[in-house]
Amino acid sequence: xxxxxxxxxxxxxxxxxxxxxxxxxxxxxxxxxxxxxxxxxxxxxxxxxxxxxxxxxxxxxxxxxxxxxxxxxxxxxxxxxxxxxxxxxxxxxxxxxxxxxxxxxxxxxxxxxxxxxxxxxxxxxxxxxxxxxxxxxxxxxxxxxxxxxxxxxxxxxxxxxxxxxxxxxxxxxxxxxxxxxxxxxxxxxxxxxxxxxxxxxxxxxxxxxxxxxxxxxxxxxxxxxxxxxxxxxxxxxxxxxxxxxxxxxxxxxxxxxxxxxxxxxxxxxxxxxxxxxxxxxxxxxxxxxxxxxxxxxxxxxxxxxxxxxxxxxxxxxxxxxxxxxxxxxxxxxxxxxxxxxxxxxxxxxxxxxxxxxxxxxxxxxxxxxxxxxxxxxxxxxxxxxxxxxxxxxxxxxxxxxxxxx
Length: 405
Fold this sequence. Notes:
transmembrane, 14 helices, two-stranded antiparallel ribbon, alpha+beta, 14 strands, single chain
């Protein structure tokens, strides 16, 4: 008997037992769908995190206040950085092109009867270029606004929509902490970063923030939430990071643990990539276990099938079928079940990925390599778990088989 005849016979036998075949394939379907969906969603999450970090700008360096111990032991970061630190960095570190210090505070922002909670950010005009923000309408505040402590504000896209409902807000007045600000610009949508929505912000001059919102809270200078620094090019990032650390240690008279931390966007990108990649692999392995469970189900059903078809096996062997013919037929049945279940599982997984892409901000990827690998594993599982039932069927003595029937 050639392979084509074995395939035809196996297909006819499986079609004759549709319910059993369908239930046997269910484990393979679930396993393949889980693998494809897990890998696709994991890649989508990794891409989302990568896009968010790359949107910060490839040459951005973040100087964050507080030691590691302080950051781990308190929710509010200690304010160990001051404006003079930022000025020293831009003037004394040759690889730094511009700096944008920040003071952040959550405030209730209102426009007549409309109220919303927003992150109020006091910063400098260089913030727009350092953080790669674009203005959609109006303008960003300038050096004159900064020097004169002007009460002007630039709204994030989402805050503008909430307060003005698609109306042009340029020239309108909003209030925050009982202070009135004139809206001079609206930012382009930026999205979320590390759990913080960058479109829920109100940007004002740093001097206005310091003098009229938070006040002077330190005798050592104007305390900052953190400092954004832009390196001149990618090649100067590493040297600039080293020089910033040494400069701040000298300025802060540090002999033990640093009271700040310097991070680059590339470091953060690598960390997020490693975490997302590790989680994807772990979830894919867990999903792969369900494929093995499905393979065990294939073996169990095939063993039952051998027991039920002893008369057929005995008759075929009495008519001249060899052990190899019987072995191939049962192996082909197991492979057909596994491959068919694999294809249906892949289609289900692709459907799940598409649904997640529609209902969430993720952009899951459908990996061709994952599909090929999953389908190959399905066929391999059919062969592996079909060997034992096929060997048992092939070794049946025809006389014993016919008598037992």
